[in-house]
């Protein structure tokens, strides 16, 4: 099954999602309208500043009828109104935009948590991590940094064009010529930039995936001396980020060159029209000075408007990636109608599953009777973990069916699946919070006595009694870091509280090589008691205690029977167990 990234949202999907988020924010429409009014007043007052400066010029040359006090007060008032209205408008606009970003982040994380595990794995965890971290940060930065500039530039440009035409109709020539020119500049930029920024974001996601793989598999990488190869792959991914980033920035540089030419053309036209109108006596020197000051001041907003297209495009690329996760949320699976009686019977019937062109599991038939413990052994890559994922419903078979209590596991609702199935792997997570919070994830209504009893049953009582605050002890990344064996015991205690009919232990006792070997094995035995269990056995002593042992090779079941039967048979399992015994000695 090829890795497939999450999709990019279309413009229509982005607009619909933003509109939906705005509807959830109280008074968002009214706040936006007030912000629009304030920004308009601020832009108008900002344009009035050069007009007052032009009045000062007329006072100096003796062409003005007003006095110094009126002009000075007008200049000061325009500056204050511009500053206050603009700041208030930006504040209100930022409040709404940041709330939208916050809602999008929460919606994306919520959607991602509800996605089937196989969908996340197919896309690659790096893609999802990049969207929830890099893209959210990029979008937030783009809004924070560009929204004030974008608003100021837009309102100031429109207000200045109106004021210029109000001074003298000939100045209409400037916006009439420059508007199409700037539109062409922007269109040329937008034709190339989105694809280049999207490629940059995708390269960043690939880099995140490779870095995560290197961190999570560091022990394996060191064991096989693959440090250099891993470093080279990460370097190649980072180089692609630089390459695509440079391509995107070159697009912006080309835009800057065009803008410089546009500035020159605008100044030349302004000076020419100003000279002509003064020579004809249509405008005073002060009025032309005000017009040129407005053109000079217009140069800044236009430049800002074009420059922020760089950040806007990067922000939009991130927004499209975020919405791409949200627009296709998982549809909750309705109750299948399976009987409430939980027998714990598991049947795999002619099940096959492939990753791309390679078959991981092929034509597997297996039945786990209620209360039976089946150990699955085999070499690395034999398909054991894939079978465990298929039974847990984390993977969907390409052919065949996986039945739990007579119903296809993929048809079970979340409620039905949780009541019947639970998986503990070698990699367990201790959530940040109190130990009580960590345990009640499995059963929110559990009393403290039940939590302590679960810990005692998985042989965690010794270290639990030494905790300074008992169940109130902070654990996880922000508290007490539990060693691997204790973290695994905590996961097994959660399994007891959850009380499923079928437990799947995917090398869950692999840490048994440590000093807590006996306790961890005994804890796993306690969890499997009176339940159906599928054990992916890393240690063959787990297989020795199972009711039945299944041997896998190249995705197929090659042997099946009790430990004693397979040893007597003298086949692959007997060879493996003999090697295991010699290794222990």
UniProtKB/TrEMBL annotation:
Main location: membrane
Entry-linked PROSITE patterns: ABC_TM1F, ABC_TRANSPORTER_2
Subcellular location: Cell membrane
Annotated coiled-coil segments of the chain: none
Signal peptide (UniProt feature, chain positions): none
Naturally occurring in which organism (per UniProt): Corynebacterium yudongzhengii
Transmembrane segments: 31-49, 69-93, 173-190
Occurrences of domain ABC transmembrane type-1 (ranges): 33-314
Membrane topology: Multi-pass membrane protein
Keywords: ATP-binding, Cell inner membrane, Cell membrane, Membrane, Nucleotide-binding, Transmembrane, Transmembrane helix, Transport
Name of the protein described by the UniProt record: ABC transporter ATP-binding protein
GO cellular component: plasma membrane
Domain ABC transporter, chain residue ranges per copy: 346-579
A GO MF label: ATP binding
Domain of life: Bacteria
CDD domains on file: ABC_6TM_exporters
């Amino acid at each position: 099954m090829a890795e497939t990234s999450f999709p990019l949202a279309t413009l229509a999907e982005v607009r619909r999602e933003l509109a939906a988020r705005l509807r959830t924010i109280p008074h968002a429409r009214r706040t936006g309208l007030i912000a629009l009014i304030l920004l308009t007043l601020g832009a108008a007052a900002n344009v009035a500043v050069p007009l007052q400066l032009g009045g000062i010029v007329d006072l100096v040359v003796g062409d003005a009828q007003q006095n110094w006090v009126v002009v000075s007060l007008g200049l000061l008032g325009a500056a204050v109104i511009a500053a206050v209205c603009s700041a208030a408008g930006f504040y209100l606009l930022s409040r709404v935009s940041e709330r939208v970003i916050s809602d999008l982040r929460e919606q994306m994380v919520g959607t991602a948590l509800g996605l089937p595990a196989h969908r996340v794995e197919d896309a690659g965890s790096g893609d999802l991590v990049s969207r929830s971290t890099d893209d959210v940060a990029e979008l937030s930065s783009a809004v924070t940094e560009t929204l004030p500039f974008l608003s100021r530039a837009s309102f100031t440009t429109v207000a200045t064009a109106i004021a210029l035409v109000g001074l003298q109709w000939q100045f209409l020539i400037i916006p009439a010529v420059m508007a199409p020119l700037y539109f062409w500049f922007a269109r040329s930029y937008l034709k190339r930039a989105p694809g280049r920024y999207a490629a940059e974001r995708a390269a960043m996601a690939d880099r995140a995936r490779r870095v995560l793989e290197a961190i999570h598999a560091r022990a394996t990488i060191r064991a096989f001396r693959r440090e250099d190869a891993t470093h080279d792959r990460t370097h190649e991914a980072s180089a692609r980020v630089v390459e695509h980033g440079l391509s995107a920035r070159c697009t912006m540089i080309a835009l800057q060159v065009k803008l410089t030419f546009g500035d020159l053309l605008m100044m030349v036209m302004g000076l020419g029209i100003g000279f002509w109108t003064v020579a004809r006596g249509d405008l005073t020197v002060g009025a032309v000075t005000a017009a040129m000051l407005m053109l000079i001041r217009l140069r800044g907003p236009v430049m800002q408007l074009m420059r922020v297209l760089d950040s806007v495009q990067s922000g939009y690329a991130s927004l499209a990636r975020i919405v791409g996760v949200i627009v296709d949320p998982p549809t909750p699976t309705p109750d299948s109608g399976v009987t409430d009686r939980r027998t714990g019977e598991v049947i795999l019937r002619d099940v096959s599953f492939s990753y791309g062109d390679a078959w991981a599991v092929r034509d597997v038939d297996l039945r786990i009777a209620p209360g039976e413990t089946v150990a699955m052994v085999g070499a690395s890559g034999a398909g054991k973990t894939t079978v465990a994922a298929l039974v847990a419903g984390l993977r969907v078979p390409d052919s065949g069916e996986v039945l739990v209590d007579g119903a296809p596991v993929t048809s079970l609702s979340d409620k039905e699946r949780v009541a019947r199935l639970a998986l503990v792997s070698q990699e367990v997570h201790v959530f940040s919070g109190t130990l009580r919070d960590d345990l009640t994830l499995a059963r929110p209504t559990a009393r403290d006595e039940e939590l302590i009893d679960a810990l005692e049953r998985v042989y965690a009582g010794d270290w639990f009694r030494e905790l300074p605050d008992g169940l109130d002890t902070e654990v996880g990344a922000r508290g007490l870091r539990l060693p691997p064996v204790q973290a695994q015991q905590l996961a097994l205690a959660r399994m007891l509280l959850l009380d499923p009919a079928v437990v799947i232990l995917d090398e869950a006792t692999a840490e048994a090589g440590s000093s807590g070997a006996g306790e961890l094995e005994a804890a796993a035995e306690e969890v499997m008691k009176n339940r159906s269990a599928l054990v992916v056995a890393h240690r063959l002593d787990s297989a020795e205690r199972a009711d039945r042992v299944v041997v896998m090779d190249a995705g197929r079941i090659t042997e099946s029977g009790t430990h004693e039967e397979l040893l007597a048979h003298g086949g692959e399992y007997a060879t493996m167990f003999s090697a295991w015994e010699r290794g222990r000695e």
